[in-house]
Amino acid sequence: MKKKAVVLTSGGLDSTTVAAVAKNEGYELYCLSFNYGQRHLQELESAKRVAEYFGAKKHLIIDIDLKIIGGSALTSDIEVPKHREEKEMITKIPITYVPARNTIFLSYALAFAEVLQSNDLFIGVNAIDYSGYPDCRPEYIEAFEKMANLATKVGVEGITKLKIHAPLQNLSKKGIIELGLSLGVDYSITHSCYDPLPDGTSCGECDSCLLRKHGFEQAGVEDPLHYAK
Amino acid sequence: MKKKAVVLTSGGLDSTTVAAVAKNEGYELYCLSFNYGQRHLQELESAKRVAEYFGAKKHLIIDIDLKIIGGSALTSDIEVPKHREEKEMITKIPITYVPARNTIFLSYALAFAEVLQSNDLFIGVNAIDYSGYPDCRPEYIEAFEKMANLATKVGVEGITKLKIHAPLQNLSKKGIIELGLSLGVDYSITHSCYDPLPDGTSCGECDSCLLRKHGFEQAGVEDPLHYAK
Q1: Which pLDDT tens digits describe chain A residue by residue (229 residues)?
Q2: CB-based burial label for B35 (10 Å; 0-12, 13-18, 19+)
Q3: Angle, vertex CA A145, rays to CA A140 and CA A148, nearest 5
Q4: Of B80, B183, B187, B226, which has the fewest CB atoms closer than 10 Å, so is most exposed?
Q5: Which residues pair with B163 in a beta bridge?
Q6: Which residues does chain B have within 8 Å of residue A114's beta carbon, measured at their own beta carbons?
Q7: Which of A145, A104, A60, A61 is nearest to B34 (CA)?
């Protein structure tokens, strides 16, 4: 029987690369996505395409209400910042940061893994491009893994150990794209923009678009996405 | 300005006692409850009464879908066990255990706390009566607190430290009831049963009812609740 992996799947470039890594390591994929009051649903459409692309055994989309809690440009009416300098992106916690988002996502992944009897969670956090987000740091992932192993039956019964795989942790965007391409990922199915036009076209100006465009440029590969600017 | 506390409020005896402790320590209460596909909604009705009783500044009820993940008698059609021996309750992980529930609840509490700029989360976990639940153990709470301090802006900016208060951790049910009564709690507003009758009456036979009844007996106080059996 194939080992099962729970893969947090946003439909973006990073989590799609992570799905390719898990697939390549021989796991059977159980994709998990969230409908969390994002401003746009292109993300979920991409997530569905990605789960299908990798032949996921199951794709669970969970409705969660982060809007009710508030506090982020990604789930409220605060404006998404445009044209930020990379230096600023890296050093300042952006207002697109959603409070405790990765913790909530990983908690659901943990529940899903426990029910599936999977010991492997995959997440596309990255400490280089997103160092402004506290919950993307390696020490955070390590602390979550430790907590997770105390939180569940697995931990108590001590049979196996749950592992959080963060294979992009130390890669640049260029490195992530190169990794994905080496595994045959078709990035045209992904979506990265924080603030797409009504027709779904990527804005080309938010942090996420800028980092992506820059990554493709550095990798010397053409980005299959079309941008408004 | 009063310090703000986020209090996980289930409407049960334990979390109600915790709310009383937080109130008594001078916090302004922000209660947080979940509509998580419990079999019965009496729990939420009690939670509302409790929040009101303590004059909570806000009571957030978040819809979360644990049913879609499955794996527990509390969120599915598996039968709730009755008449279990206390020894069995203490040593065996019960099928009423909801995978990663406290982790999911605490993650939302963390997000709420971050938005409120609160550094204090209160939770009614108890290591004595519920030692069968892995996510009630002190080492779990400690690991969550450590993770939480790495997960959020507070952690990065290092200004303050988030604390998870679990004041019932080492109390017996008798001790919890005595603590609550010493703080003037009216336990008639609480609800503990896992499997109430259609009219809301507590069954008197599930783990939760049995532990509660036993606690009141040991405290030598009459339980204000009426039981079917």
Answers
A1: 789 999 999 999 999 999 999 999 999 999 999 987 766 678 899 999 999 999 999 999 998 877 777 766 556 556 666 777 766 665 555 666 677 889 999 999 999 998 888 999 999 998 776 667 788 889 999 999 999 999 876 655 555 689 999 999 999 999 999 999 999 999 999 998 888 888 889 999 988 899 899 999 999 999 999 999 8
A2: middle
A3: 125
A4: B226
A5: B120
A6: 71, 99-100
A7: A104
Quote the CA–CA distance of A109 and A5 in Å, as a whole number: 10
**A168 with B186: CB under 8 angstroms?**
no
- Interchain CB distance below 8 Å, A144 and B148: no
Domain ranges of chain A: 4-192
Using a CB-CB cut-off of 8 Å, the residues of chain A touching B68 are 60, 62
A4-192: which CATH architecture? 3-Layer(aba) Sandwich (3.40)
Cβ contact B55:B33 at 8 Å: no
What ipTM is given for this predicted complex?
0.86
In sequence order, what E strands does chain B have?
A: 4-8, 28-35, 58-63, 120-122, 163-165
Helix (H) or strand (E) holding A207: helix A207-219
| CB within 8 Å: B151 and A102 | yes
